[in-house]
Every structure is written in structure tokens, then in C-alpha cells.
């Protein structure tokens, strides 16, 4: 296939998965007709029609490598996206980043109110664990999925990364300290997406864990570069926030050029981790490229 | 036994369970020496040395009826208390009740800050699901525990009850509407505690579910009466908040005397639900009495 045909094929695959995950999220989120209606409306506002769905794409791509059923992957993908959506709602609140724009729309606390944003985040997190617990099939594996998601989201994972981020504002961090923070703040949930996809079929192979770790870190490095270089319109969220808030980033630590180089290095080592899987890993490889080479 | 001997025996049982749960919570909460240290310190501050531990007591009392192992009950009790602790931290935040005092101490956002309070609540919720997923033994039952806790905590349970509470401020609710709210806001987690205790041994008997529903509702009715009648010093949290905030309560809906009568009625019907269990249900009966007759 020519480059453009490969690109078109990848874009079609992405579009199909994104549509599938959107439907799964619509099904698992309570109807806005159901009491408490305003809370449910806000939960749907925060989650639906938004974002690139990178984590669900990773769930499906890893599931393809592992040979998992699509129905199970839908649940895992929706769960990890619910955790991601909850974290965005809470991060945007006035007591955190105090941001007004997300995915091109007013943030939840702006569109609704602060108390509703708090409850939306809380209830989205709960729903993630609920839907995993309600799937049929192997309970041992489902319980391992609960554990994987909880470890990635909790105080040793995403929430912990956020806390380190808060403590670090105005400070200069070494590359090792930055990595410690980012492996938790963003990397943990990205990694969890890959592991959850694999867990839908069986134990997660070590090579996939390596891939997950590298791609998770690359995602954050690229996020830092984009925050420094892209526009608010392109990102659909406020650009230039990190330097304005005095947050240490890969760009502030090593400059944009070296940060881009580091992301490229991580992309190559992510590819290398997949070598043993052959053609089954094509989507994971393409996603590593997509994550590192994206412009938004 | 004379009344005082029975009381002393119940007090000793409560003290023993409370101490046991405190140790279980200390073990499952990350050490304050571990990074991010401030977050972990705040999680411990929010959870340890606080409260009557009503939900853990219900877990153990229901476990006694069902014949569950103490080790499993510890995990269930700690999990439900972590959910309760998270909800208190978030409820006290400025965008919700904006309260400064909880369990006789400054609230988390006062002692630490708003962003930390947000993350503490988030991470405590996650930890509840994590510890259930990490217990050994029957995975099907553990997964059912995840589901029970998630249904009780989410938008159709506790978080939903909070949202209805917010929407109701300044309104007059009928008794049916009040019950709809309170069954979710407080009742759901109280009920879940009973079910989790039973689930540690096997499926939850219907009679225990009935008991749980009645005691859960009674708990909130008494809470309303105490908020109206007790002092801040006795409660360890700000008294008189409901009427000041214009919140509909059982006291505003039916007056304090009828609310007390309703709680008494619920206490009796909770006892009635336990009849088939004989002596095994003595702690559950005593807890129903404790919940309705408490002064704080």
C-alpha cells in the first residue's frame, strides 16, 4: 500500500473504533431522562463526543495483539475512558487548573457549576468500576482489570501524578523527577489501557507492558511540546498553560527540540518492543506513530 | 444480663471492631513517607482516627449473621469506610457545603488546600475498589462486592443523592421525595455495608436487604433531627447547617417529634426483618438501636 492508502486504512480503523466506543459510552452512561437528570446530563456532556479516544484505541489495538473479543474490549475501553473523562473534569475545576475550555467546549464547572463538576467526576470514576464488575465471563480476569485500573488511577498513579504536579509548580525538576511525575500523571492510565486490552484475552505479555510504558511517557512529552507550540484553536483546550502556571515540563527542562527528539526515541523503542508480535501489532505501531507525530 | 451489662458488652464489641478497622485502614492507606507524601498524609488525615465507623460496624454485624471470616470483613469494612471518607472530604469542599469542621478537626481543604482535598477524595474512592480487587479467595464474590459498592456510591446512589440534595436547596419536598433523596444520599452506602458483610460469606439474604434499607433510612432521619437539635461540640461537625442552607429535611417536612417517631418505626421494622436469624442477629439489632437512639 502507498503511504496514503496506509494512512487511510489507519484513519478508517480509528474512526470505526471511535464510533464503537462512543456507542458503548452512550449505553453505559445513565440516560439524562433519569433522576438526578442534571447530574446525568452533565456526565454525558463530560464524556460524549469528545477527544481522540487514545486510550480506547490502545485498548482495541492491544486486544488485537492478544486476540480478545470485541465485546469485552468495549467494556474495557469505556471504563478507561470514563476514568480519563473524570480526571479532566476535576483537573479543570477552579481549585485545580481553573480552565474554561476542554475539547472545544466550556468545561463542566462553567457549563453547569462547581458542585456538579465535582459530583460528575466522582460518579464517572465509580461508573468505570461498575461496568467492569458487570461484564459476564471470567471473574478472575475482571477482578484483575479492576485492580489494573485502580492502581493506574489512584494515589500511586494518576491522582498521585497530579499531586506531584501541584507540588512542582514554580520549581525546576530534573529529567528523572519529571519522568517520575509523568509516568504517574499520564503514563499510568495510558499503560493501563494497553494492559486492559491484553487482559480481555489473558495475562498481559511483558513486551506489551514495555510498549505501554514507552508510549505513555511519549504521550506526555508530546503533550508538553504541543502545549508550548500549538494554538488553543488547534488543541481545543487552552494552550501555553504550563509555562504561564510555571509548571515544569519536558520543554522547560530540555527545550522543545530535545523534547521532540526524546519522544522520537521513545516511539522507536515502543516499536522495538512489539517485534515479536509481527503483523498483529500493526495498530499498536501506528498508534505509537500517531501519538508522537500528532499535531493536536 | 442487666441493661448495663448488655450495654457494656455492646460497647466492648464496638470498640474491638473499631480498633480492628482502624488497623486495617492504616495498613491499606499508603504511608505518608511514600511519594506523593503530602497527598498520602492528607488521605490518612481524612480517614484515620475519625467517626463512629457505623458502616464498618454494620459490615461486621452482617458478617456475623452470615458466618463470614474476619479477614474478609476487614477488607469490606475498610472499603466502605474509604468511600464514606471520600464523600465527606468532597462534601465539605467550598463548591459543596463549604464546611470547616469535621470529626472535631479542620476539614481537609482547610488543613491542606482545595486541590489536595479534591485529589484525596478521588484517590480514596479508587483505593476502596483497589483493596477489594486485591483480596484473595472467590473472585466472583469479590466482583459482586465491587458492583455492590459501585452501585451504592455512583450517580444512582450516594453521588446521585448529593446531586438531588443540591437541586432541592430552598425547595419544599414531599415525604416521598425526601425518601427518594435520602435512600440514595445516605441509605445506599449504609445498605451496601450490610450487603458487603453478607457477601463475604455468600449471597445476601433478602431479609438482610430489608433490614439494610430500613436502617439506612433511619440513619438519615436521625441525622436530620440531630442537625436541628444537637450542638456543634457534640456532633464534631457544624450543627444547624440544614436549615441555614434551606435544605429540606425530615424535620422541616414533618417536625422533629414526628421525625423521631418515624425513626422509631423504622428501628422496629428493622428488628422485625431480623427475626428469622435468632441470636446471630444480636449485633445488627443493637446497631439499629444505636443508630436511632444515638445523641451524636
Overall domain count of chain A? 1
Q: Taking Cα atoms only, what radius of gyration of chain A do you get, to the nearest Å? A: 18 Å
- CATH domain fold name of chain A: Farnesyl Diphosphate Synthase
Distance between the termini of chain A: 26 Å
In terms of quaternary structure, the protein is homodimer
Summarize the main sheet of chain A: 2 strands, antiparallel
How would you sum up this structure, described in words?
The structure is a homodimer of 296-residue chains. With 296 residues, chain A is mainly α. Chain A has a single domain, classed as Farnesyl Diphosphate Synthase (Orthogonal Bundle). Helix content of chain A is 73%, strand content 1%. Chain A has 14 helices and two strands. A two-stranded antiparallel ribbon of chain A has the order 1-2. In chain A, helix 3 crosses helix 9 (175-199) and helix 10 runs parallel beside helix 14 (282-293). Chain A is globular, with a radius of gyration of 18 Å. The two termini of chain A are 26 Å apart. The mean pLDDT of chain A is 93. At the A-B interface, helix 2, helix 6, helix 7 and helix 8 of A face helix 2, helix 6, helix 7 and helix 8 of B.
